[in-house]
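Regression test case RT-17, inverse folding.

Input:
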């Protein structure tokens, strides 16, 4: 679910950023942001499934802290730095291109989710075996 949301998000955010003005911008933005937020619940759920009971609260806290530090703190900072760097070539449109460049991290995240999906069954079996003892 998380990977599918990321795969759907990327083209819709790019459509929103580079399409001509019009009412479809609202649709593309809604779909992009809705799908972009779809990774959080499955990520937390699988973490809860894999972690021993005594570590679940701490693992959720670490995940939420990571989401906020990486996504909110560094994401906004990176977008601003990119926008400033692109201002010489793109002028007032630099923020549009900076936001588009941040989708590269979404592609990296998508690749990591696909990798994790292939590895997760092994981790689930190991977690179940560890909790059985």
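Golden output:
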């Amino acid at each position: 679910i998380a990977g599918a949301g990321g795969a759907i998000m990327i083209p819709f955010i790019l459509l929103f950023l580079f399409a001509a003005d019009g009412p479809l911008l609202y649709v593309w933005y809604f779909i992009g942001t809705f799908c972009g937020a779809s990774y959080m619940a499955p990520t937390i759920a699988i973490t809860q499934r894999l972690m021993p009971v005594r570590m679940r609260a701490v693992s959720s806290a670490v995940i939420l802290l990571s989401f906020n530090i990486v996504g909110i703190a560094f994401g906004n900072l990176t977008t601003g730095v990119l926008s400033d760097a692109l201002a010489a070539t793109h002028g007032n449109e630099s923020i549009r291109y900076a936001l588009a460049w941040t989708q590269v991290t979404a592609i990296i995240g998508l690749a990591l989710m696909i990798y994790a999906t292939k590895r997760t069954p092994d981790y689930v079996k190991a977690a179940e075996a560890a909790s059985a003892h």
